[in-house]
Amino acid sequence: MARLKLPKKLLNKKIGIDSSVLIYLLNNDPKKSKKIAEILSLSKQITASTILHLEIATGFYKKNQLPLVDVLDELPEICENFRYMKVDLSVSSIAAYLRSKYTFLKTPDSIHLATAILVKADFFLTSDKQLVKIREIPVETI
Question: Does the domain spanning 13-141 belong to CATH 3.30.1330.30?
Fold first, then answer.
């Protein structure tokens, strides 16, 4: 398989991810899944809030896509550079600050961003173009 030409700034980095990123990947989106897979495979570390699991698993349960729920559960074992991070008081405090500063932010997005900030991710990967307004962490959109 030919590699995509990705900007070097996206390679070998610590990244935080939004739920939309994994949804595109797990649903094998024809326009975005290859680029996402390449970025994630070349990342040093991928961190996601446990809220991401809740958001995505809910949709899979509704559609009775139980094997995809299993994939979500097993991601840290399947992908050695992937980890879930629990929402604790530190994440909550950063998320609250972000929501107070950026009134367009919803709670789940503020938690995803706070998680990435807390682990000192190099950037946050999302499909939500509105999140590029966030100044506390670089945001890359797909």
Answer: no
